[in-house]
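The instructor's notes for this session suggest beginning with a concrete chain rather than abstract definitions. Hand out the sequence below and ask the class to guess, before any prediction is shown, which regions might be ordered.
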Amino acid sequence: MILDDKPYRQVGTVKRGGLVCVADHASNYVPDDIELGIPRELLTQHVALDIGIEGIADRISRRHGVPAHIACVSRLVCDLHREEDHPKVVPTESDGHLIPGNIGADVEARLKRFHRPYHAALAHWLDAIEPDLIVSLHSFTPEMATCDKHRPWEVSLLYNEDDRAARHAVRLFGELGLEVGENEPYSGAELNATMNRHAEAHGRPYMFLEIRQDLIATRADQARWAAMVADVAGRVDLALKAEA
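After discussion, reveal the predicted structure:
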């Protein structure tokens, strides 16, 4: 939930350099004064949040020393991983589900309350840290109701123009025996809003991960993936430094 009216929380000890984690879709929280008009059970599904990501972000910070900037509001309220002028920044439908409470919503008010504070805080945080590598955490559903495309990947690396970290991460996850995608199940050239703004625009290397949700549904699985992501990210960081 939102604390002190902030649509984000920051976890972990901040120091200059090193690794940081960003989780735009970690929460399914809907403030009491916003009525989406959807069945409550929909808030536990992939349309409302990236399942499993909050647990990984917390663990990677608390157990592996990677400070995290974590969203505290559902993407059905305001999608923090979209540009302000994107037509789905306040979505009226998601994977075939109508979000009637968002039809005619005051988009400017949602941006002012959630989107802008989230990104302003993230920008300030990153400027203070100047991280060596940003780990952007997302998860994807194995099946979409509105798309029958097979989604076999266990983890995928997304990027727009900067593939410095991604190419190392693809190799390293592959060496762990995982089925690794590249710009799947969608392309970072089409949707990379947060990393375009806070990483590529500043020349900061980033590792944008999509992890399949059925692999991270339990706390034990989240702990295992947090350790794996922290290890791979550390090795990616070393590889980038060796190239510099």
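Then share the key points. The chain has a mean pLDDT of 95. The longest strand covers residues 133-140.
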